Amino acid sequence: MATAGKVIKCKAAVAWEAGKPLSIEEVEVAPPQAMEVRVKILYTALCHTDVYFWEAKGQTPVFPRILGHEAGGIVESVGEGVTELAPGDHVLPVFTGECKDCAHCKSEESNMCDLLRINVDRGVMIGDGQSRFTINGKPIFHFVGTSTFSEYTVIHVGCLAKINPEAPLDKVCILSCGISTGLGATLNVAKPKKGQTVAIFGLGAVGLAAMEGARLSGASRIIGVDLNPAKFEQAKKFGCTDFVNPKDHSKPVQEVLIEMTNGGVDRAVECTGNINAMISCFECVHDGWGVAVLVGVPTKEDVFKTHPMNFLNEKTLKGTFFGNYKPRTDLPNVVEMYMRKDLELEKFITHRVPFSQINTAFDLMLKGESLRCIMSMEE
Q1: Which residues are the active-site residues?
Q2: In angstroms, what CA-CA distances link 66 with 16, 218, 272?
Q3: Fewest CB within 10 A of the end CB: N or C in the chain?
Q4: Which residues form a coiled coil (predicted)?
């Protein structure tokens, strides 16, 4: 392309300080260096993780910063050493990567790449420790290696999944993070058998994606657990057959679920990050074969406490990162699930706004009104 090797000026939404509205600015985006790719972002979505680090309440504040990590785009140019991607390829950026060389990448059991695993505090490229974004010569920090709230961004090649060019980017862009995380937690880690009972703790976008996985697995009963009763109606679209609100009961919710299911659910997936929900998720599964999977991220102070007999009674507890999907190897196959109409994505997309109205997307999520809001760069 004519822009290859040159600095590109474009619009980006910059977070100048914690909790303050994002500002649409003209930024300079440098050309990609070795093993990097410059991507033209066409659609980007808002994930709760963006909001969490924009608020910067529980972590190191890194500002000014370009947030965003769920998106779909087209390769504009590639840096030295990049052979798997070429200009024009359709890609999904991913907050974690797959170098294909480390022990994790070579293992069939792990997707936690040594080189490209998520680093929320790093605001620069791993190759040279520099930012590819500037405003009037002043560096603007990156976010989890993606920074998709920009018309152009620079990403390590290992954090880009090449996908079917026929797939609609305005829909499959949401597979970059939360939807794949929940879906994979069920399909790849919990692995319910057809006819089994599954409980999902937390009915946000990730939890509903986990529920979608239970539906695809042929679960006979899918129990949604959430403190907000209004979420049950929406959850029915994802296969939810029963709803339990822990606040409606005087006993621990795990005891309620065990009574409902004659001994416990076969599989349970926790998508809240709340330590009590995590404990309930594990303790509610059936002895002998029950499997519980933790997806949510707890606080640093949290401690998981349960009686060791739960393990001796052959209940299994697992954790997962990005649904155990290897980004470059597995995400193209998840996109094909959508293309075959096995996976429904439209029901996750509750709002659409132009990129210039990105603060509206933040407001919708803060109010709890949005699962996924898609922003189009081409207004």
Answers
A1: 47-49, 69-70, 99, 102, 105, 113, 117, 177, 372
A2: 9, 40, 26
A3: C
A4: none
pLDDT digits (tens, 9 = 90+) for 90-100: 999 999 999 99
Q: pLDDT tens digits for 263-280?
A: 999 999 999 999 999 999
Whether the pLDDT of residue 184 is over 90: the answer is yes
Domain range for 240: 182-320
The average pLDDT across 45-71 equals 93
- What's the rounded Cα separation, in Å, for the pair 201 and 252? 14
Which of 45-59, 151-165, 351-365 bottoms out in mean pLDDT, i.e. has the lowest?
Answer: 45-59
For residue 117, tell me if it sits in a domain.
yes
229 is a domain residue: yes
Exposure letters 252-275 (e unless 16+ CB within 10 A, then b): ebbebbbebbeebbbbbbbbbbbb
The helix/strand/coil state of 27 is: strand
Quick check: 104 and 91 in contact, CB under 8 A? no
Query: Amino acid identity of 324?
Result: N
CB 375, CB 355: distance < 8 Å: yes
Q: Give this prediction's pTM.
A: 0.96
Percent of the chain residues topping a pLDDT of 90: 97
Half-sphere exposure of 178 (CA within 13 A, CB side): 29
Bridge partners for 317 per DSSP: 292
| Count of residues in the chain | 379
Tell me, yes or no, whether 75 and 211 share the same domain: no
Under 8 Å CB-to-CB from 372, ≥6 apart: which residues?
45, 46, 47, 70, 174, 178, 179, 205, 348, 349, 350, 351
pLDDT exceeds cutoff 80 at 30: yes
pLDDT for 57 equals: 81
Longest dimension (CA), the chain: 66
